[in-house]
Specification:
Length: 256
């Protein structure tokens, strides 16, 4: 972490759980929180990438994060993984509901089974992760939950109706749970990223025409990178944002 960005003393030794943390934006979350001195755990199905990230961060001299393999669509396995994190690291104070998959699909081809699978991949686990961590946060007197939405449906993006529906629902989940958990001192916020230049996005969809159109529509003329949203997640997890809850935090360089 360079000296130009903030350090958050309240994050030191705080137990942080990140879903989908082995690659992309999730891996950046793991890295940023580890560099703040947090006690980080992350869940993913990508064994090789998860293990490599742990090794990389340990090589920086940081406390190695705890990586647990978990299929988030399996709620029993998700609950067990969260219980293991709590047993090994302590009460989870921060939940980053990051995991998602924006697989493209035509509306004509969607089956009920595919629809249910997309909801399980992009929405359902966020609620059940909240349900699993909330009792510990309540007993501790508070916590911070950061859900991840998407700019896609705000931009009227087509070509993936199950994904955009799930991501729209994440915002409703955030608002409702902020109300329900607020009396316990638990904050629930949602980050809405713009088009973030992960390796997957670059390899699959960043054509010269798409890049030109993106920069034309953004107020700030720089492509967004994972650290841009991870730094917002740091702030929402830290005590600096102690009175912020139920809000949608758009990090899109002024595109929406």
């Amino acid at each position: 972490m360079t000296d130009t960005f903030a350090r958050y003393p309240s994050l030191r030794d705080r137990v942080v759980l990140i879903t989908g943390g082995a690659s992309g934006i999730g891996a950046e979350h793991v890295t940023q929180f580890a560099r703040q001195g947090a006690r980080v755990a992350f869940l993913d199905i990508a064994d090789a990438a998860g293990e490599a990230l742990v090794e990389t961060l340990a090589g920086e001299g940081l406390s190695a994060p705890l990586f647990l393999r978990c299929d988030l669509t399996d709620i029993i396995a998700l609950r067990a993984a969260i219980a293991e994190v709590s047993a090994r690291l302590g009460t989870i104070a921060v939940l980053i509901n990051n995991a998602a998959n924006d697989q493209r699909h035509g509306w004509e081809e969607v089956t009920p089974a595919y629809w249910d699978e997309r909801m399980a991949t992009n929405l359902r686990h966020q609620f059940f992760a909240i349900q699993a961590v909330a009792p510990g946060m309540q007993a501790a007197g508070g916590g911070s939950i950061v859900n991840f939405g998407s700019i896609s449906w705000h931009m009227l993006q087509g070509g993936m109706p199950a994904y955009t529906t799930a991501k729209a629902a994440v915002e409703g989940l955030t608002k409702g749970m902020a109300r329900d958990l607020g009396p316990s001192g638990i904050r629930v916020n949602c980050i809405i990223p713009g088009w973030i230049m992960t390796r997957r996005q670059i390899e699959l969809w960043l054509t010269p025409d798409a890049e030109a159109n993106l920069l034309r529509n953004q107020c700030l003329k720089r492509k967004l990178v994972p650290a841009d949203v991870s730094r917002m997640a740091l702030w929402l997890a830290a005590d600096d944002s102690a009175m912020c809850t139920g809000q949608l935090w758009v990090v899109d360089a002024g595109r929406m």
